Every structure is written in structure tokens, then in C-alpha cells.
Amino acid sequence: MSADRLEDVARLAAAASRQLAAGGEVPDAVAALHHARSFVELADEDGLVDSVESLAEQEDGDAAVADVVDAFRALGLGAAADQLSAAYNWSEDGYPVDADAGIKATDVRAALDTRFEETVDAERLEELLAERLDEDPEAYGL
Length: 142
Hints:
74% of the residues lie in helices and 0% in strands. It has 142 residues and is mostly helical.
């Protein structure tokens, strides 16, 4: 993978962000790149659960969460999609735990955050996205 491809990822993500913010459309592959990259950057800083909550609090929160789940799946990151979905559902359900078994919500939160970080982080995602660009540059408009 070349440094040029990593630059292409950053350039495509920035262009997609501007286009989507203006109400425009981008190719599906570029939208997946944008949604996954934006979420992983947030999760690297705040953790999975806090990032899911921030996403869900947006005006179209359910749709925003679904966009990221779909993006992860489109990029072949099914485990990350499942973890995001589980964190979202757990959050929406009010953080249920089995207190009788000694399970604490803070422990569940920490486990979810750690597992997600082990599954995907910004650096690994950038490398994966660069590989996807190499495999199918036309899907990304290159």
C-alpha cells in the first residue's frame, strides 16, 4: 500500500464530508469510507459506547447509527458492525446488567470499548480503506 493511497483516503473522506454536509450525494463506497472513518476517529477518542451515544443523539440518530453499521459491513468489518449494534442496543435498553451476578455497567462499558478498539482503530481502518481503493478504485471515483 502506498502513501498515495492513504492520501487518497483522506482526500475522499474530506470531500465526502463536505458533499454530505451540503446535502449532496456520494457513491456508496465513498459514503461507507466516510461513515466508518468518522466513527472510528470518534471511537478512538471517546470509546465505543460514548461514540454510539453521540451518534444516536443526532437529529436522525437511528439512521446515523444504521449508516455506520452498514458502512462497516460494506467494508468487510462485520465484527465492528455487530459490536456497534450491540452497544447501541444496550444503550437504548438503559444499560441492563445482571447485578445479582456481580456484573456492573461500567465493566460492560469498558469491555465493549476495549473489544471494539481491538477490532478496529483509525490506523488499521486507514490501511483497510487504502487496500479497498487499490482493489476497486472505480467504486471510489478514482
